[in-house]
Design goal:
Helix 3 packs parallel to helix 5. The protein is an alpha/beta fold. The longest helix has 17 residues. The protein has a single domain, classed as HUPs (Rossmann fold, 3-Layer(aba) Sandwich). The protein contains 5 helices and 5 strands. The chain has a 5-stranded parallel sheet with strand order 3-2-1-4-5, with helices on both faces.
Length: 130
Amino acid sequence: MKILVGYDRSRVAEDALKLAHEHARAFEADVHLLTSLQQGPDLQKEDIDAAENRLDKLKLAGDFGNIHCETHASVTYLTPGEDLVQFAKDNAIDYIFIGVKKRSKVGKLVFGSTAQYVILEAPCPVVTIK
């Protein structure tokens, strides 16, 4: 079994990682921890390096023990939601764990919702944490 965790440094992403960790232990699953960075003129090499370092620290601090854990700092022109769904399709992911941030209806309209996109488009079940 493979579990994908969408990580964006938020509190709910931390909670999603903790819950995914519990499921991985219970079901002897592999964990893939993904941070999606959208390619653009503002994205610097330092941003990518910082994201990779954060993921490495999470992996070490997560006490994964015998759980296989891989980290991925994905740089792409896709939105984070599209990137998560594409990664899940490309890697035969069985479950996606993501955090859900509360936003107003106007906020969702203006900024979109990564979680909403993943829930609607994912090729596998999605576990959301608020």
